[in-house]
């Protein structure tokens, strides 16, 4: 995939090790995402993990990395972004957990985007919004795309913060609001990504919205997001996205 704006909905698979990356690559994967579920929804992996995964992923496939459900610590966020980028990630995801006001969001995001532009210009910023932000006093996800665009981000991810009850995106946010998020990203010139404990049966519901990416972790594993990646489940979801998204793009 040579562009961050694919011509069909692309498949992002989250892995925790180079061994899982090798398993995922047996299917058609558009983006290999590195995260550490033990540290949260957008938990950060160690730099060496990112580097090892980048080493086994073909150069034609982007590697993304989460840098955390970020507190309002702009300097910490900027340093984490540089670390992930220099370890090999070309897409850096920062979760808007601690920033509670628009001013805080913008200060946090500008700290990251400015650092990436200066030190790692080949890497792109993706802003992680949470569908359940109202439960921890966070920013409403529909307000995020405009601020992400102002901060020169490349895209926005809509995820869920609380994974403890297994609630997925469509159990927390209405389809109308998810559609509005995808539309807002498009209007602001950002790519859109949807995640949040997505299940196989969510794919035909979400693809008509034409998001640029659908992201999965738990649905790819035996035993949930902290379990072992299953090659069978990866292939099943990859095949469904490829088939369904082709139909949606043609319609």
Automatic annotation (TrEMBL):
EC number annotated for this UniProt entry: 4.2.3.153
Catalytic residues, chain numbering: 35, 93
Record keyword Cell cycle present: no
Transmembrane intervals: none
Origin superkingdom: Bacteria
Keywords, in A-Z order: Lyase, Schiff base
InterPro entries the UniProt entry points to: 4HFCP_synth
Pfam family, one: 4HFCP_synth
The name this protein goes by in its record: (5-formylfuran-3-yl)methyl phosphate synthase
């Amino acid at each position: 995939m040579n562009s961050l704006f694919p011509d069909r909905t692309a498949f992002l698979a989250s892995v925790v090790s180079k061994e899982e990356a090798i398993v995922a690559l047996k299917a058609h994967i558009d983006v290999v995402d590195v995260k550490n579920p033990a540290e949260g929804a957008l938990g950060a992996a160690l730099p060496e993990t990112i580097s090892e995964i980048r080493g086994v992923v073909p150069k034609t496939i982007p590697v993304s990395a989460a840098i955390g459900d970020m507190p309002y610590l702009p300097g910490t966020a900027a340093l984490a972004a540089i670390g992930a980028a220099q370890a090999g990630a070309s897409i850096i995801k920062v979760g808007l957990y601690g920033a509670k006001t628009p001013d805080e969001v913008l200060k946090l995001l500008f700290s990251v985007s400015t650092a990436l532009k200066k030190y790692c210009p080949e890497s792109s910023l993706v802003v992680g919004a949470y569908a359940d932000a109202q439960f921890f006093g966070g920013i409403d996800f529909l307000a995020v795309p405009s601020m992400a665009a102002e901060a020169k981000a490349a895209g926005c991810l809509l995820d869920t913060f609380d994974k403890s009850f297994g609630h997925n995106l469509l159990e927390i946010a209405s389809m109308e609001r998810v559609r509005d998020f995808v539309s807002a990203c498009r209007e602001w010139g950002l790519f859109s990504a949807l995640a949040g404990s997505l299940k196989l049966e969510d794919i035909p519901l979400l693809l008509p919205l034409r998001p640029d990416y659908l992201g999965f972790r738990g649905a790819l594993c035996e035993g949930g997001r902290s379990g072992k990646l299953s090659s069978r489940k990866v292939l099943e979801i990859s095949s469904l996205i490829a088939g369904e998204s082709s139909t949606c793009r043609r319609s």
